[in-house]
Amino acid sequence: MAKKRANGEGNIRKRKDGRWEGRYTAGYDPATGKRIIKNVLGKTQAEVKEKLAAAMDDAKDLDVARSDDYTVGSWLINWYMLYAKPNVRVSTAEYYRRSIELHVNPRIGNIKLNKLTGRDLQKLYQDLRENGRLREAQKKKSPGLSASTVRGIHLMLHNALDRAVKERLIQRNPTTDCIAPKLEKKEMKFLPAEDMKAYLDEADRRHVLPMFYLELVSGLRKGELVALLWSDLDIENQTISVSKQATRDENGNIVITRPKTETSVRLVSIPQKAVELLRQEHRKHPDNPYMFPSTRTGEMYYPDSIVTLHKRILKSAELSYIPFHSLRHTFATAALQNGVDVKTVSSMLGHYDAGFTLRTYTHATRQKQEQAAEKMGNFMDKVM
């Protein structure tokens, strides 16, 4: 059948099955130089004209020769190996790898990358929230993943698909069409001031007082704490240099890496009491480079080992359970409530900005606001 053109608007013809077809050159194969021909179909000539114009416009912004090569799964693996793994910390890379292999690719990995839609992703998030837990659901535990975990997967996909846009594999990032799960606000736990003496007394009884005292006056992350060397202490200036952390690689081995972010590389001032305790600790093992070598192996403590030790201290001291990370919250809360300004606390914690610290520790700053309100009231009473 002779081609039927719509007033010279592209190559449009009516097919034997009654539908209209528009054909266009989407690009050229870099290997052969031959044209890559694509088509659009529709019930009417007008519909095809509209589709053809949109497809030709899209082709200008896409590397068509490559955009058909990838499924979601193959692109995520390529993105992980080439862009993510070499440029993020080990624990983040491991989180990405597990998310891709265990949660994303089994569900949407076979979808063509250039056919992925926001609806596909929204269904993925819903399925993960309802059925994402890999191990059999335990008592009191939902079979689905937490909102924070699914939100983390959403952010990972956003980064991976953003790179696909930059490489002209897809026109736009479909994650922008999604509603990511809202974070669940959890009650922040910390060690009450009235329990600190019992906690530290028990740590002393177990011969680990310097390590846990330092934690309460500095708020270090567990990986930062165990990676400290004696050379990281500046006795004269009373500072600890935080420039590394212990974490696990994809094979489960402990490795030393840079801290979480660039702002996490920092000098932390500590009290004179902490310096004295650290000097006492060092006299016990003067030739060991680690600030807190394991009492069992003489090597660096595993991060999980001090978590276990923390649990035992709480149990022996008959104190309510709080996660080890809550000692970091304890430091921040106590510092803010005792008049240390937010910016200083933020820099000591290694946060990326003071605004994040302020939002995280609103409960601590409320007390200072109440005191400020009382002072302003007293001032205005004198004025009036």
Written overview of the protein:
By secondary structure, the chain is mainly α. The chain folds into 3 domains: 11-61; 72-177, DNA polymerase, domain 1 (Orthogonal Bundle); 193-369, hpI Integrase, Chain A (Orthogonal Bundle), CATH 1.10.443.10. Helix content is 50%, strand content 10%. The chain contains 15 helices and 8 strands. It has a 3-stranded antiparallel β-sheet with strand order 1-2-3. A 3-stranded antiparallel β-sheet has the order 4-5-8. A hairpin with a 6-residue loop joins β2 (20-28) and β3. α5 runs antiparallel to α6 (147-166). The radius of gyration is 29 Å and the shape is elongated. Mean pLDDT is 86; it is low at 1-9.
CATH-wise, what's the superfamily of the largest domain?
Answer: Intergrase catalytic core
**Cα separation of the termini:** 96 Å
CATH class of the largest domain: Mainly Alpha
What is the beta-strand fraction? 5-15%
State the helix count.
Answer: 15
For the secondary structure, the number of strands is 8
Runs in which pLDDT lies below 50 for 5 or more consecutive residues are: 1-9
Brief description of this entry?
With 384 residues, this protein is mainly alpha-helical. 50% of the residues lie in helices and 10% in strands.
Task: Name the descriptors.
8 strands, 3 domains, 50% helix, DNA polymerase, domain 1, mainly alpha, disordered N terminus, three-stranded antiparallel β-sheet, elongated, 384 residues, hpI Integrase, Chain A
